[in-house]
Amino acid sequence: MNNPIPYGRQNITEEDIEVVVSTLKSDYLTQGPKIAEFEEAFANYVDSKFAVAVSNGTAALHLCALALNVKQGDKVITTPITFAASANCVRYCGGEVVFADIDPETYLLDINNVRKLLEAEPKGAYKGIIPVDFAGRAVDLEAFRNLADEYGLWIIEDSCHAPGGFFNDAKDDKQLCGNGKFADLAIFSFHPVKHIASGEGGMITTNNKDLYEKLLQLRTHGIVKDDSKYQNSVAFASGVNESLIPNPQLTDYPTWYMEMQELGYNYRITDFQAALGESQLKRANDGLKRRREIAETYFEAFKGKDYIKGQSGVIGGHAYHLYILEVEDRLGLYNYLRDQNIFAQIHYIPCHLMPYYRELGWKEGDLPNAEDYYRHCISLPMFPTLTNEEQDFVIDKVNSFYEG
Question: pTM higher than 0.90, yes or no?
Fold first, then answer.
């Protein structure tokens, strides 16, 4: 097969192109109506009250940490098997990242290891938890919510890999619990290899109105445009010198007025990105269905092979951003696949062993499950437009490498 097969790929349709072109021809390229439309559509998709569109998933994480008042010295627990931004958002605010090991079967943050960390120190020592729906497998957020409530912690759910993913509510096996239901805030990414692509972009969802309003303010420089929340007087806002005109008879703030009330950021998304994201969202369920079909084919192809140490199982609520195998001689397989024009990827180098976090005191041996996983993991091509022929070629080459 001559054409390269990447591990992930966006799917841009003529409809996507048409809505972007239409937006480019409109009056707004940014801060226009498409953003609110996308936010409403996405909130409906994940069954959340509020959604805030931002420039990327990292910005979403940073804004969440800011909205939850993470500050110098605050300790927050997360997983080492994730993109670095899941941890870095705490560091941006001066907080301390504490990594807990993963469950070797699910590759997710192990709640038992989190509990051990919490039990080892007095209540109040930790402020929050950032579980990650790694590879598309949804964390059991109900269990984490119960643990967080026991210790007075907030939860940010990093759901960049799993829009539309779910787990079963323990109280009702028939009830499917998806993104953000038990978290204070949930975040998503619209990077091209994700389920919904807008070039760059991200989303934060919440059911908490106060957090929602805080996020809106922080997204745009900390600026407020709401008469009821202004702190300066109407006279000042109007440019009237009260020392020269005592008690000016002014009741309304001028329409131009705004206030920067705290230090915020420019983390806005553009209208044409939002238009693309909303168009892609219409096909999200079809994409999920195809990803699950691909996953089932992989699972059946590699089931029982003695050179497969582990693989992503077929799970109903899994959103399959990635399909991961654990194998022996991972480096050999990776290089062999590249020679065959199959560009598999490795997700992820454990965060705690990145040089930055090593300098903060983390070392090899601290999190053995995560470190063992890294030595064996490889992500096979997984995207909705992967053809059956391409997938068969990938499977054949993996088997050929081990079976000669």
Answer: yes
Rounded-to-10 torsion of CA 187, 189, 193, 198: 150
- Strand ranges (DSSP E) for 249-389? 259-260, 308-311, 323-327, 342-343, 377-380
Helices 57-67 and 85-92: crossing angle, nearest 10°?
A: 40
Q: What pLDDT digit, counting tens, does each position of 332-384 carry?
A: 999 999 999 999 999 999 999 999 999 999 999 999 999 999 999 999 999 99
Cβ neighbours of residue 254 closer than 8 Å, sequence gap 6 or more? 237, 238
Q: Which residues of the chain have pLDDT under 70?
A: 169-175
48 vs 59: CA distance, rounded Å: 20
Domains of the chain: 5-222+264-281 (3.40.640.10), 285-403 (3.90.1150.10)
Sheet holding 323-327, edge to edge: 308-311, 323-327, 377-380
At residue 369, the 3 state secondary structure works out as helix
Selection from 121, 63, 75, 120 nearest residue 99 by Cα: 75
Q: How far apart are CA 217 and CA 211, in angstroms?
A: 10
Cβ burial of 197 (10 Å; 0-12, 13-18, 19+) is: buried
